[in-house]
# Entry
Amino acid sequence: MIADEEGFLRPLVEEDACSGCALCEKTCPPLTGRASDKRANPNVFAGWHKDPEIRAKSSSGGAFSALAQSILADGGVVVGAAFSEKNEVAHICIEHPGDLDRLRRSKYVQSRIDGTFQATRTFLEQGRRVLFVGTPCQIAGLTSYLDDDPDTLFTVDFICHGVPSPELFRCYLEWLENRFGQSLDAFNFRDKRQGWQNVMASVRVGDGKQSLLKGPLNSYYHGFVAGVSLRPSCYECRHMNYPRPSDLTLGDFWGIGEVEPFPFPEQTTRGISLLLANSEKGDSLLHKAAPKLVLVERTREEAQRRNIHLQRPAKRPAARDTFYGKVAQSGFAGVETVLRLPLKRRAVQWVKENIHPDVVKRLRRMAR
# Structure
């Protein structure tokens, strides 16, 4: 896998070493068009981990942690995306609960798979249970590579908006280090100190201080949400609908309670996971993890209302055509102004970042 001119990882065929077996073409999901055998109408749940400390460390409700804990407790293996010491994102395999925190929290960047497909095959051949978590296309790639769906493999994807390139993220971190005047020791895309629904990144710099990234400092995330920095294939993704390629789909249950009453309104500031059980294996994994979770049945209509990418991929903005050319020319500084929100949205974002959510709710009630 090598980086293209935009920094996205792509396969390079060494033609001199190629035997012409065409196995790469036979296993590539976009080329084979293999259809998913999962449910067209998944079972839908809202859920959260019963341990408030785990929920606080998680991007939404901590459902992933409960699923992973159930696999690790049986001597299984969990595979997912983690930050390296250099703040690069790559998939790793973990076998001990103490390593689970590395796989928690969202990473809005393309993850390197490295050798985890091959490692997954080896673990399965040893008779071990494996939980593999990734983007929908990564799950489709894994199952196509294995050419099998063994009972001991449990796949989890998430509601995916798309992925920016690793090179863009590297340029962003370099730009932040220049702004802070220090190296970055850690990065968190989803800091929940101001509540689950106030999505905000944070960093820990060299002196140990943690800082929330507000306004222009969070422009990488703004560009991600606007869809201007995504991989070209993300705008044509085949996995944004049903049936999904995985046994379970996770996400944030945005807008819960807007369609029908939700009996636990106090959870809406702490994080609520959306879970779609797409297969019988998904059901069994949820059942295994249920003692650590609170699960509430909901409807697919409610799940989709605020999660548009359960229905269609992101639309390609016109600014995408020149975006990565500017990055190549001037680094992140060349696109930071492009990613700034319009004035009205900046005002709304400032309120979210600087005014406590309870105050905002009281003001809304007064306005009515």
